[in-house]
Amino acid sequence: MRKIISTLALVALSLGVFAQEGGSPMNKAVNRVTHSRDFLMIQLSYDGWAGAPDSIKTGFNRGFNIALMYDFPFKKSPLSVAAGLGISTSGVFLKDHTFDIAGKVNPNTPTFPASNSYKRFKVATTYLEIPIELRFRAVPDNANKGFKAALGVKVGALLDAHTKGKNNGGNGNKNTEKDANKGFFNPWRFSATARVGYGNFALFGAYSLNPMLKDNSNLDIRPYQIGICVSGL
pTM for this structure? Predict the structure, then answer.
């Protein structure tokens, strides 16, 4: 996963200077520094599960998203449409419960057994995403300045789902247990997104329009993210 994120970052740095601008290479570099189309999007978030049972409590959940998006401006308009490719990662920390992602308790239905055996228990997911946005910019030719907002959708394909638990170390024994299985998860995620900010910084939110788990589950868990977005290039 780190390799994927690093590759996207390197592509952003190499292509951002030359994307969406005309003229000589030198002019492209100068224009890219002074005029942004929000080609690179980096997001840090608090993650949650809407619709989870009341008995399932979570801690300080964290997410990280990165995307490269090409901007298609409307002529003589503050509006534009952007589409791209990105990676979305999420880590949700359960309190006093675990997620039997491997199906050890029930191979047909996902379960969340109560447990105080773990000091920390994380449910981690990674998606490859195609984000699409309708954008508004007060300064149309430079996203580095002025007020801006966006509404959009994301289509995500599940790349990885795993759990990682660190036990409480009874009798001096401390170890980490990790299970990986995508079988209980929907392979696709469809999310609604919103973003509002000024210059290179914005607040954003994303909400899953379909359940995280497959139909064989009676749980209607919808992941969401709220956080800070840094954009540029």
Answer: 0.85
